[in-house]
Amino acid sequence: MNDHTDIEFDEAPNNVLLVEDDPSDRLEVRLHLEVMGFVVYDTASSTEAREIFEQRDFSLVIIHLSALPLRGLELCRLIRASSTVPILMLTSRNEVINEEMVMAAGADDYVSKPIESKILTSRINQQIKRGQSQRAPRANILTWGALKMDLSQHSFMVNETELHLTNTEYQFLQLLMENPQRIFTRNQILEAIGVMKGLGTNQLVDTHASRLRKKIRESGGPEVISVVRSVGFRLADSRDGKKDSFPEPDLHLIEDIA
Fold first, then answer.
1. Boundary-marking domain end, from 108, 135, 162
2. Looking only at Cα atoms, what is the longest distance across the chain?
3. Distance CA 144, CA 158 (A)
4. For residue 78, what is the domain's CATH number?
5. Does the model's pTM come out above 0.85?
6. Residues 6 or more apart whose Cβ sits within 8 Å of residue 20
7. Same domain, yes or no, for 151 and 124?
8. Are the beta carbons of 190 and 211 closer than 8 angstroms?
9. Count of structural domains within the chain
């Protein structure tokens, strides 16, 4: 990898936690990050990674444990349970861990090995920018029936009870709640949540939508996302979850039909 793009940082630390048990890949990714201007804390141990994470503030966490892949997923879950820091997972086709499992564990995005420099740089920049936008003070509070999203606190509540969402889930739902009458294609959603379009990314949107529906429903909330066949997604027409009807889509609101 030898293509790099520097990124400007805000007042937040530009620390990155790199958890990689392949020595060659760890060195390669570390050098890539350092050229981009990051301060890198790297380790091959999930236990040590948790200790390092608790000691410092990080702008990004990158995880790949090929020898113990389930520990990599568990580390992702533990970090996500206590922080909204962007998490980027590295995956490989010859491993038992797939992209859907990675996203279910709370990761915001993934990069498949062998790693391409331009793709890694783009994904890192996207996640850093998303993290910065989440830290920017905003006073907006979005409500929709029993749902409440406080953008300034980066919190989400169902029936006055806080529900944890991953960064990607939060931005997906925020997009819909800010535009309740609009239909978004999969491409538009991918762009909004900071994921590059590629093989399998349409299914990624469907996975996020399904997980959001399940989380909110299990917390006593309504069916929140409607699928407009052959078009995309929109906020559900009914706020009480008792019906799933909606008017014919306004094609003027659709800019990029997948």
1. 135
2. 55
3. 10
4. 3.40.50.2300
5. no
6. 26, 29, 42, 44, 62, 63, 64, 65, 90
7. no
8. no
9. 2
Tokens of 1: 């990898």
CA distance 14 to 128: 9
User: What token pair was written down for 156?
Assistant: 């989400």
Q: How far apart are CA 237 and CA 48, in angstroms?
A: 47
Per-residue pLDDT of the chain (258 residues; tens, 9 = 90+): 545 444 444 444 689 999 999 999 999 999 999 999 999 999 999 999 999 999 999 999 999 988 888 899 999 989 988 888 899 999 887 777 777 788 778 888 889 899 999 999 999 998 888 777 665 554 478 988 899 999 888 899 999 999 999 888 998 999 899 888 788 888 888 877 776 555 556 678 888 899 999 999 999 999 899 888 778 898 886 554 443 333 333 333 333 333
Show which of 135, 155, 172 is a domain's final residue: 135
| 238-247: long-range contacts, CB 8 A cutoff, minimum separation 24 | 239/144, 239/145, 239/146, 240/145, 241/217
CA atoms within 13 A on the CB side of 138: 15
Structure tokens at 167: 């960064």
